[in-house]
Amino acid sequence: MVERRFLGACLLLLAAVALADGEGEEGRWGVRLLDAGRLEKFVDELPDMPVLRGYGVAEGGRLVTGELAVGMYDTMWKFHRDLPATRVFAYGASKETATVPGPTIVAMKGVPTRVTWTNHLPPHHILPWDRSLATARLGNGTGIPTVAHLHGGVQQSTSDGHSMAWFTSGFATTGPHFSSPAYEYPNQQPPGNLWYHDHAMGLTRVNILAGLLGAYRVSDPAAEAPLGLPSGAEFDRNLVLFDRDFRSDGALFMNATGNNPDVHPQWQPEYFGAVVVANGKAWPFLRVRRRRYRFRILNASNARFFRLSLSGGLRFVHVGSDSVYLARPVPTEGFLLAPSEMADVVVDFVGAKHDAVTLRSDAPAPYPGDPGGKADMVAVMKFVVASKPEHDPSTVPATLMRQYPKPNVREAVVTRHIAMYEYTKNGTDEPTHLYLNGLAYTDPVTETPREGTSELWEVINLTDDNHPLHVHLAVFTVLKQRSLRRVDEFRDCMRGSASGGAGGRNDALACGMQRHLAGGRRHVVPRQERGWKNVFKVRPSTVATLLVRFKPLEESSATAASGKSGGFPFDVTAGPGYVYHCHILDHEDNEMMRPMKIVR
Predict the structure, then answer these.
(1) Residue 25 has pLDDT above 50, yes or no
(2) What sections of 496-578 are H helices per DSSP?
(3) Closest CA to 54 of 93, 97, 112, 94
(4) Radius of gyration of the chain (CA)
(5) Residue 343 included in any domain
(6) What is the DSSP letter of 406?
(7) What are the subcellular locations of this protein (predicted)?
C-alpha cells in the first residue's frame, strides 16, 4: 500500500507541476492549477442554502403531500471571494436559484414528498468521464446521465435512485431501469438527517464533484420540540463539507490521467482536493453568539475523511448519527467522519476562551494512511464568537429518543459474509478495480434479505483502505470490529486463483476466518456510533459484525392498520431493487457495489 499510495501522490504532484508550468492538456490552453495556499482563509461568510418545503399546508393547517420540481442545471458558482466563478452542475428549483450544495429539503415525518427531478445538463461533461468503467451507456447519443438518490431514505426502489435508472436531458437516453423522473418519499421514518445526491452508474464521482448534492431533513416537531435542542434557522444549521481542486481560472480540476491509463484512461482510486469547502464556500467564517448551536455535519467528499475538532478546547455533544437520533447525548473532543457519514452535534460557544474558534481536521488522505503517520492540522472554517453571553433557552437533555428498538442478535435469521477486495495490475501495486465478494456489479444478485427480518453481516475488509459501507433502505448497528491475524494468508485463501478478477474461493468459513480472528485486536466502536446507522467505517484487515435491520425502526399507522407487522409501508419487492456499496465514490464507480433484492 505504501508504495502504491506514494506513487499515486507523486503522479498527482507531477500533474500539478506540469499544469503550473503550462504543460499538459489544460496547460496547452494556458490555464494553471490553482495554488490553494494563495487563497486567503475566512473571508467568505458561511451561506445558508435555500430551503424547499417538502410538504403542503391545507385549510386548517393540515399537512398534505408536498409537490416539488428540482432541476439539475449547468450554471456558475462562486466558491471564494478571490476565485473566478466556477462552472458547476447544481440542483435548484430553477437555474437562477440553483446552488452548491443544492437547496435543503425539509420534510415532515409521515407526510409524503413528491419530487420530479429534471435534467437540464449539456451534451458533454465538464469533468473527465471514464467510459472504460462499468458506466451508463449512451450508444451514439450525447448527454449526461443522472439519477437522484435520497441517502438514508426509506422508499420503494423505483424512487431510490437506482444506478441504472438514469436519464439524460429531455429523456433522450434512459437507463435500463428508468421508469419515471417523479419520485415519492413517504417520510415514514424517524426524524433525522438525510442527503440527496447523484447516483448514476460510473458517474457518481464526477456528478457529485460537479455539484449534484444537497441536504434533506425529516422533521417531527411533536417529538423533537420537547427535547429543547437549539432550533430555528440561525441556531440549527446544516454544514456540508467537501474538498475540491481548482484551476487558476476558477474551473474545477480533476486529474484526467488514470493511475493505470492502459486499463482505465482517467480513473484514479481516490480524489483529494486542496481546498476545503463548507456550504459551497472555501474556508468560510460564521458569526455566532455565546450560546448553543446545532450543526448537522455531512461529509460529502469523494474520498476524504475528516477528523474534526475545535480549537480552544471546545467540545461537541453528539445527538444523532447518520439518519437517527442517539438514545443519549455523547460528548467528544473530536470525531472521525467518513465520506457520506453524518454527525448531528451541539456546540456551546459559552465556553470559548477567545473570540475565534476554528473547526479543523487532521485526518490523513488517503485514510488511514501509513501506520504511525501523522497528518497536518488543516482548517475547515472559523467561528467568530460574540464577546458577551446571552440568554439561551436551548438545552441538551439527558435522554433523547428512547423508543427505538435495542439491537437483538437473536433476531438475525441469516449470517452473511461480505468480503471487500482490491485488484491490481500484474507487476504493479496500482489498483484496477474493487469488488465485493469477488463479484462485479452486474453479476447475479446474491443478497436477498427477507422483509421484516434482521441479518448478521460479517464485513471482511481485505484491503489497505478504510471503506465506509452504506446499505440502502436498511439501518444497522455495529456489534464489534476485530482485526485479522496473518491477513495475507487469509486473503490468499479467499482470493484463490483469482489474482486480478472475479471469482476465487471467497469462502470465509473454509478459509478459517474465526481462526484468523482468534487473538486479534478488538476495536472499540465510538459511543456516538453505537446507535442505528446507515454508514460504517470498516477498518483495513478487520471484520466488522453488523446487525442489519430490513424492517422499519418504527411501525407506521398505515402499516399497522394493514396488519403487515414488521413490513414497510410500500411494496418493497417492486422495482429494480436496492444496493449496498463503499461510499468512497471512486471505489463505488469502479464496481465496489452490489445489487440487493428484498423478498417476502
Answers:
(1) no
(2) 513-517, 557-562
(3) 112
(4) 23
(5) yes
(6) P
(7) Endoplasmic reticulum membrane
Summarised one tens digit per residue, pLDDT across range 46-96 is 999 999 999 999 999 999 999 999 999 999 999 999 999 999 999 999 999
130 near 265, Cβ under 8 Å?
yes
Cis before 191 (ω within 30): no
> What is the distance between the alpha carbons of residues 203 and 585, in angstroms, rounded to a whole number?
9
> Any idea what the CATH number is for the domain that residue 270 is in?
2.60.40.420
Please name the residue that has the C-alpha cell 445558508: 48
Three cell numbers at 49? 442554502
The partner residues of 433 in beta bridges, in order of sequence, read 423
Nearest CA among 247, 258, 367, 264 for reference residue 8: 258
Q: Residue written as cell 455539484?
A: 211
SS3 38: helix
Amino acid letter, residue 181? P
Let me know whether 367 and 435 are in one domain. no
Q: Which domain holds residue 559?
A: 409-596
3-class secondary structure, 543? strand
Pair 518, 377 in one domain? no
Distance CA 351, CA 465 (A): 37
| 204 plus 305 within the same structural domain | no
Strand, helix or coil for residue 37: helix
Residues 214 and 66 in one domain: yes
> pTM, whole model, 2 decimals?
0.94
Query: Among all chains, which residue has been given the C-alpha cell 460528548?
Result: 331
Q: All 3 cell numbers of residue 378?
A: 488543516
**How many domains are there within the chain?**
3
- Do 347 and 427 reside in the same domain of the chain? no
Taking the alpha carbons of 557, 563, 564, 566 in that order, is the dihedral positive or negative?
A: positive
